[in-house]
Amino acid sequence: MSLKINLLVCLFIFHLLAAASVSGRKIGIYEIKKGDFSVKITNYGASIISVLLPDKHGKIGDVVLGYDTIEEYKNDTSYFGATLGRVANRIGGAQFTLNGIHYKLVPNDGNNTIHGGPKGFSKVVWKVSKYVKDGPCPYITLTYYSADGEEGFPGAVLASVTYTLKDSYKLSVVFRAKALNKATPINLSHHPYWNIGGHNSGDVLSQVLQIFGSHITLVDKELIPTGEIAPVKNTPYDFLKPRKVGSRINKLKNGYDINYVLDSNEKMKPVGIVYDKKSGRVMDVQASAPGVQFYTANGVKNIKGKGGFVYQPHSALSLETLVFPDAVNHPNFPSSIVNPGEKYVHSVLYTFSIKK
Description:
This protein has a single domain, classed as Distorted Sandwich (Beta-galactosidase, Chain A, domain 5), CATH 2.70.98. It is 8% helix and 39% strand. It has helices at residues 2-23, 70-74, and strands at residues 29-34, 37-42, 47-54, 60-62, 83-84, 90-91, 95-98, 101-104, 113-114, 127-132, 139-146, 157-166, 170-179, 184-185, 189-190, 208-211, 215-219, 225-231, 243-244, 257-261, 269-275, 281-287, 291-295, 303-304, 310-311, 318-322, 337-338, 343-354.
């Protein structure tokens, strides 16, 4: 009996020390830089807080929305630049059944769970495992240990994200994860709010967008997928050919917030291309994920951002590559389940260029 008590005491002390080490981890800002191309990341939420690159006149501009202080990121409800997990996007009813066991999650979007719950991966301090600031291939790798039962999810997970500057004006983002002891859904993504005209340039409605997805996953009034996959042809969601973001946005209630089924079966799939005529900047996105959530910052209202600039609806767009939302409740969707021993990898590549 005494041996059992001693063991329990040791385990309790271990968990206290582990909690203290996580809560005591310092929050910092880390820059990776290659010439006049620079990305800043904070280990709070493994978030991108700035992406600086020149326009067609050589003027450097920041092309992601964000804040001036870490404290503002802590209080943020828009997920500016954040890494999303354990499961990005929504899970309907904050529940699912896996291997005969019913799991109840922590709801934080009405009755649903979004981006992993109230304390998802965007609201924790990640460990900086590796960091090379500059040179031919600057990068940073951040890791996070998610305990069994965190936000209601089964099993422990070890997750990482690596940001790397490759070649000229290429940003690689690679998410990796392992299920350590139980099968669990894993769907990592991130949420940069892109305005390639500059974070303080106003709305993105005149920017030209192409999305390489001819179908979308239909949703109900709470934005939970119904399970139906529908073609975009002859709808406001059709961006198969380049068109302005705002060309048909007035046909929608608030704006775009929908998952596209990417057409390609390649390992790295074409996702989308964004072009801003005024700055000349072009952003090309590729990813290994089967879907992309296109969002036009509909919920951003009167948010004081960098340099005091006030962000409004449609002041940016997000192209969040991922396994389809609520996949854990739809057998006809690609699976988000990762079993112990399996490796989860999700790669994204942003290529920036100038069109004069």
